């Protein structure tokens, strides 16, 4: 779309042939010499007009490329006026010089004012048409680009909202919790009731925070403790949480819950060993560290949190990083400090 047709090699080759021929016919019509076409159509004047058309078109194309390098996006009216004036002045100077050179060197006399006026009027009109076509394409391209950007933003918002919706439902945790409650209800009703309380706390938080942009880390960590107790009822490795976070920065809702779930689900199940997850602050980052013992068919990597990373990219330029430090895997999460929040 941004490739204007005037830069096409075929247009550059054949365009001046037609425009130059049209100029020649107009000159004959103005000079009342149309009948001379039957005698000698391929006259010297025809080739002169075509050559002038080639020369003016290439200079105009060069001016488009030069003006395209200037940053006048915020002042389109200034660009239209300036480019139109420069193009017309350039055309008049170029045509006047070429016609004067042809008349004096080939025809051996100087052109009069009327002849220069005719040549300059015709080629100035062609220049005006050329520039108008360019700006028509230019503004149409800007308008279409703006529409495409708005559509992309709308699509990203829908995608972002859908990801929040999916995270809020979390079908894997839902079915695992319900299955565990069904088993516990037969053998230990009190334990089943405790499991139900943890489950309701976690899901109430997930569903209530879906429309909120950010939450404080303290809110997230409170629900994370309920999630860990819930996981300790499920057939996964028992989890210990070490929380060294002291400041009150913000995170996206369910961020910590998503990370804990990915860590727990990717760790080999063991009744003897526990999984210790440590939360700490390092500058503008929240670090989550643990000793990985991953399942053979399921690992925790950047792809595992691609949706979370995409959500964070709307709010900060700092990415979520995952790296190893000795035997410890460290997840670095950027802190958020937004003034405005969405309503629940």
From TrEMBL:
- Which positions fall inside the Signal transduction histidine kinase internal region domain? 169-230
Q: Which UniProt keywords apply?
A: Kinase, Membrane, Transferase, Transmembrane, Transmembrane helix
**InterPro entries noted in UniProt:** Sig_transdc_His_kin_internal
Q: Which residues cross the membrane?
A: 12-30, 42-68, 80-102, 122-141
UniProt xrefs under Pfam families: His_kinase
GO MF, any single term: kinase activity
Protein name stated in the entry:
Histidine kinase
Q: Which organism is it from?
A: Croceivirga thetidis
């Amino acid at each position: 779309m941004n490739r204007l047709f005037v830069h096409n090699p075929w247009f550059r080759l054949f365009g001046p042939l037609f425009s130059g021929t049209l100029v020649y016919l107009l000159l004959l019509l103005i000079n009342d010499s149309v009948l001379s076409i039957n005698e000698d159509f391929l006259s010297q004047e025809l080739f002169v007009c075509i050559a002038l058309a080639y020369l003016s078109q290439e200079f105009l194309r060069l001016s488009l490329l030069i003006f395209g390098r200037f940053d006048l996006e915020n002042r389109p009216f200034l660009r239209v006026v300036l480019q139109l004036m420069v193009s017309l002045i350039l055309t008049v100077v170029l045509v006047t010089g070429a016609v004067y050179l042809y008349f004096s060197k080939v025809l051996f006399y100087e052109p009069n004012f009327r002849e220069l006026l005719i040549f300059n009027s015709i080629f100035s009109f062609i220049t005006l048409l050329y520039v108008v076509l360019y700006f028509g394409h230019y503004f149409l391209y800007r308008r279409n680009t703006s529409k495409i950007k708005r559509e992309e933003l709308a699509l990203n918002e829908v995608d972002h909202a859908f990801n929040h919706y999916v995270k809020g439902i979390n079908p894997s945790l839902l079915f695992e919790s319900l299955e565990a409650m069904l088993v516990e209800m037969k053998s230990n009703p009190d334990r089943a009731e405790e499991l139900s309380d943890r489950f309701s706390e976690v899901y109430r938080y997930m569903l209530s925070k879906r429309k909120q942009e950010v939450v404080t880390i303290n809110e997230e960590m409170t629900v994370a403790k309920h999630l860990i107790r819930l996981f300790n009822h499920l057939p996964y490795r028992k989890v210990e949480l070490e929380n060294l976070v002291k400041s009150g920065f913000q995170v996206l809702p369910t961020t910590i819950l998503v990370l804990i779930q990915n860590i727990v689900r990717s760790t080999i199940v063991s009744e003897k060993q526990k999984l210790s997850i440590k939360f700490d602050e390092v500058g503008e980052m929240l670090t989550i560290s643990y000793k990985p013992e991953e399942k053979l068919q399921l690992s925790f990597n950047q792809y595992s949190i691609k949706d979370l990373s995409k959500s964070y990219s709307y709010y900060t330029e700092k990415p979520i990083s995952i790296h190893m430090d000795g035997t410890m895997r460290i997840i670095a999460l950027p802190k958020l400090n937004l003034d405005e929040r969405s309503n629940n």
